[in-house]
């Protein structure tokens, strides 16, 4: 990314230019310096790795004192609001943050729609990628990515936690309805086109849920174990019925090669990769993502409030040391204090923290 002179005005332009719509201004309490990473305090760095679910307005100031890296907005954050009201809401968030915020949503389409569930923001809910592809092919998928990205960008949103790159071919799989419903090669073709269309239309993307859900159960409510071996994630197998299985890494690699900005790591335990730790807390899984697949962008966890990991001791410390850069969390106070304490006493090295924060700042256009 080209070096730029880091002023607050430049940061605003990088993050929120909407091409004719309203944009969110970002007043600063103290100037953002050109060498921003070295100018940040330890407390600011600890806050930057948190991707926090939005709190109500009464608690906003308390959250902003922690300097979160970003805010993740859900359907309730848009409910009943007009486009102008959403723009103004995001302006308010940005105005309270010295360092520009990542503003994210899960607008996958189908069963997961945070923005288009509000009829004041979109004429109808976005259909699932699977439905769009079935009815209109690749051209319809690309058109949907373009339209969706334009709407989100207009509102001041900087990243859509999409597309879902999981390979699910059985209708009984938990993730099937959110996936393309295709084999690995066909899913990979779809994912690469969606990521490219998002990038061309100014929207950051996030591939999920690495290393691939497959037929794994829901991790929102508890632990889920995938018994497959490592090679099934790398290679496609065709059974006697002609159906293709496996190859879960293939769509993620395609998305990475197309320029995906982030990858979200799931909480499922994959025996063939690391039988001891959930993928989100596994150094081995992150090594595959960085080394084998060549991803150098932001790695984020799935929500740490989810049942599969919420009760693990020192979960935030383990998440950072595993190789994550950005942690999705609801309990930002516990996360912040745990991380700050761990850096101070050496359980997290400052080099590790700096590497994570550096990638986050690069995502924001600040490095």
Structural features, described:
The chain has 14 helices and 14 strands. Residues 1-28 have low confidence and may be disordered. The chain has helices spanning 8-16, 36-39, 42-48, 60-64, 75-78, 83-95, 129-155, 184-200, 231-234, 249-257, 283-292, 315-322, 332-344, 350-363, and strands at 50-53, 70-73, 102-105, 107-109, 112-113, 159-160, 204-210, 225-226, 236-238, 244-246, 262-265, 269-270, 298-301, 327-329. The strands form four sheets. An eight-stranded parallel beta sheet has the order 13-11-7-6-3-2-1-14. It has a single domain, classed as Glycoside hydrolase, family 3, N-terminal domain (TIM Barrel). Helices cover 39% and strands 13% of the residues. By secondary structure, it is of the alpha/beta class. The protein is globular. 51% of the residues are buried.
Task: Kindly list the characteristics that best describe this protein.
367 residues, TIM Barrel, 8-stranded parallel sheet, two-stranded antiparallel ribbon, 14 helices, 39% helix
**CATH architecture level-2 label:** Alpha-Beta Barrel
What CATH first level would be assigned? Alpha Beta
Strand/helix succession:
HHHEHEHHEEEHEHEEHEEHEEHEHEHH
Percent in helix: 25-40%
- CATH superfamily, called what? Glycoside hydrolase, family 3, N-terminal domain
Beta-strand share of residues: 5-15%
CATH topology: TIM Barrel
Mean pLDDT: 89
Computed Rg: 20 Å
Number of helices: 14
Structural class: alpha/beta
Low-confidence stretches: 1-28
**Total of domains:** 1
Query: What's the β-strand tally?
Result: 14
C-alpha end-to-end distance: 8 Å
Strand order of the largest sheet: 13-11-7-6-3-2-1-14
* Main beta sheet: 8 strands, parallel
Shape: globular
């Amino acid at each position: 990314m080209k070096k730029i002179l880091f002023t607050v005005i430049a940061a605003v332009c990088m993050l929120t230019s909407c091409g004719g719509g309203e944009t969110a201004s970002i007043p600063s309490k103290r100037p953002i310096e050109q060498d921003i990473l070295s100018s940040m305090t330890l407390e600011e760095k600890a806050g930057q790795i948190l991707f926090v679910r939005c709190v109500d307005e009464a608690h906003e100031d308390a959250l902003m004192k922690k300097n979160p890296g970003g805010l993740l907005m859900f359907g309730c954050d848009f409910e009943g609001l007009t486009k102008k009201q959403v723009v103004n809401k995001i302006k308010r968030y940005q105005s309270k943050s010295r360092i520009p915020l990542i503003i994210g949503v899960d607008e996958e389409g189908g069963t997961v729609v945070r923005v288009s569930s509000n009829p004041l923001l979109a004429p109808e809910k976005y259909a699932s990628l699977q439905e769009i592809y079935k009815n209109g092919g690749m051209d319809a998928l690309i058109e949907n990515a373009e339209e969706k990205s334009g709407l989100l960008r207009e509102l001041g949103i900087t990243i859509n936690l999409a597309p879902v790159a999981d390979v699910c071919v059985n209708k009984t799989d938990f993730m099937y309805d959110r996936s393309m419903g295709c084999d690995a090669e066909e899913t990979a073709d779809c994912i690469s086109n969606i990521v490219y269309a998002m990038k061309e239309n100014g929207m950051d993307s996030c591939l999920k849920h690495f290393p691939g859900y497959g037929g794994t159960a829901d991790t929102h409510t508890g632990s889920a174990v995938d018994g497959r071996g490592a090679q099934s994630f790398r290679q496609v197998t065709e059974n006697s019925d002609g159906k293709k299985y496996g190859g879960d890494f293939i769509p993620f690699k395609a998305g990475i090669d197309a320029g995906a900005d982030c990858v979200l790591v799931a909480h499922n335990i994959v025996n063939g990769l690391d039988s001891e730790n959930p993928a989100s807390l596994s150094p081995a899984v992150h090594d595959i993502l960085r080394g084998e697949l060549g991803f150098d962008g932001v790695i984020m966890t799935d929500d740490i409030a989810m049942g599969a990991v919420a009760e693990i001791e020192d979960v935030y410390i383990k998440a950072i040391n595993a190789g994550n850069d950005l942690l999705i969390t609801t309990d930002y106070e516990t996360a912040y204090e745990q991380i700050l304490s761990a850096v101070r006493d050496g359980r997290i090295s400052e080099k590790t923290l700096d590497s994570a924060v550096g990638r986050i700042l690069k995502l924001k256009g600040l490095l």
